[in-house]
Every structure is written in structure tokens, then in C-alpha cells.
Write a structure and sequence with these properties.
The protein is mainly alpha-helical. The protein is built from 6 helices and 2 strands; from the N terminus they run H-H-H-H-H-H-E-E. It has helices at residues 3-27, 31-36, 43-67, 75-101, 105-128, 134-156; strands at 165-166, 171-172.
Length: 180
Amino acid sequence: MNLRGIKIVSFFGVFAFTFLFHFLYEWFPNPVFSIFFPVNESIWEHMKLLYSGFLFWSFIERFLIKKNDIIVSNYTLNLFIVMVTSIIVYLILYLPLYAIFGESMFIAISLLIIVILLEEILSYYLLESNKKNNILNRICIVLILLGYVVFASLTYNPLRNYIFYDTQHNKYGIDIYSKD
């Protein structure tokens, strides 16, 4: 299997992980899972699906890359870029549609598929470049972890903004916060 084949498999893998991750906190509510998986139905909490989906799939993807003797540079830099841009692209596409149509599972899932596809294409081209930068790769490990610090902080101390508001359960953040 070549890198293109791995990225095709990765598209399906990341999508499967995001689907599974949607339910993990509900099934196993605990402080650790609250950092990695959505604790409610707010737009912001669902960004964890993309961030964690790409991260957790990266362990399998990295194994596939090594198993197939594919040489890639800057894997961690690539991963960080994909994780962050997936959230940005999703929000840029989703928020105007949300403002026009309101909450729609069809739109949300369709955009999820589109964003994962775009990010796998971006990842493919980033991994094709062979200019290695060890310092940036190390910095990106810290930045990925910092991303989870931000997620944890905003899960337990959400902003009072519609992006953080769970309309289904009338609350912000984790169960301890209500709208009033």
C-alpha cells in the first residue's frame, strides 16, 4: 500500500472514530473522557470529534506508514496542522449554515465527511514534502497537548456563547452548567 492508499483508509478510519467518539463520554462519563470526547451537543464540544479523531487515528496511520516502509517527514507537524485546520474549516463552513438552517444532523455529518476528505488531501501533500524539521515536530507535540488543555478548560469553564450552548439539554459545558 502506498501513501495515497493509506490516506484513503485514513479517511474512513477518522470518520469511524468520530462516529464512535460521539458516544464515548455518554457511555463512560469520567473526567478523562470529558477532555477527549464531547460532553454535550454544543458545536464546540463536537470539535473534539475532529481533533481526537485525527489524533487517535494517527497511531494506526503511523503504524501503516511504517509497515509499508513509506518515508515521511514532519508527521507530527502534519498532524497538528490537520487537527487545527479541521476545526477551523468545519466552523467556517458550518456556522453560516447553522445560522440559516439551524441545527441539522444531515448538514453536520455531510460537512464532517467533506472536512475529513479535505484534511486527508492536505495531509497527503504535507507528508509528500520531505523537508524534515525536528524542532517544529517537537513543538507540535506540545501544541497538540495544549489543544487538549484548551478543550478541558472550555468544557469545564465554557464561554456564554451559542457555540458552547447545548440546545438539546439547555446547558453550557459539562453537566454542572445550566443556561441561567
